[in-house]
Specification:
Helices cover 59% and strands 0% of the residues. By secondary structure, the protein is mainly alpha-helical.
């Protein structure tokens, strides 16, 4: 049932929500990934469930071999991600760059970027100046956008004890050059924040990985 639900979400995203912006930003369309994952999950779980109920050895062997293949693929991805961490970081950086470029073009990408920046208290991938990649936030004098030079509200720094979310902190920053002396905007890039978070939560990451691997 859960597998079919994932397939249904993927089909809905493909039909109703998919845009050229999303397809250009992601290496593979997320809707297609959901559909494929749902189909594979349904195939594996159906083989295991019906094989156990009917005591069908062939279905149980298919279930066992499929789980083994999935486990080995996950293990290979984890090992490659560890040994090729720089390439992984570069690939993530390329994705974030595309997400920044298309920030105002797709609401889903906008919400994703805002969530990442608010959660990790960061701005851009390398630093705040990455937002110059976006047409609306580019600082060139010929840019007619009313958002020229600032950064999105999710880059606004929250001061200790501050309960109200600031949504216009960029008005305190007339240009990117003034951001270096600003206390109202996060100056650290999300790449450094994410790396620091992983390093400080290695036990949690390891425990989560084992909790997924051991049942398989």
């Amino acid at each position: 049932v859960f597998s079919l639900l994932i397939v249904a979400i993927g089909v809905y995203a493909k039909v109703e929500r998919a845009t050229d912006t999303v397809r250009d930003t992601f290496l593979i369309d997320p809707a297609v990934i959901l559909i494929l994952v749902g189909v594979v999950m349904f195939f594996i779980t159906f083989s295991g469930c019906i094989g156990a109920l009917r005591e069908n050895i062939r279905l149980l062997k298919i279930f066992s071999c499929s789980l083994t293949m999935v486990f080995l693929i996950q293990l290979a991805i984890a090992i490659l991600g560890f040994f090729y961490s720089e390439q992984t970081r570069a690939a993530l950086g390329e994705f974030v760059k595309k997400a920044i470029v298309h920030y105002r073009d797709d609401l889903d990408l906008q919400n994703l970027m805002d969530y990442i920046q608010e959660e990790f208290e960061c701005c851009g991938w390398n630093n705040y100046s990455d937002w110059s990649w976006n047409f609306h936030f580019n600082c060139s004098e010929s840019n007619p956008s009313h958002e020229r030079c600032p950064v999105p509200f999710s880059c606004c720094a929250h001061k200790p004890g501050e309960t109200q979310i600031k949504t216009a902190c960029w008005f305190e920053v007339p240009s990117h050059n003034h951001l270096l002396n600003s206390t109202s905007v996060y100056l650290v890039g999300c790449a450094d924040r994410a790396g620091a978070w992983i390093e400080s939560h290695l036990l949690i990451v390891g425990a989560l990985t084992l909790s997924l691997a051991l049942p398989q």
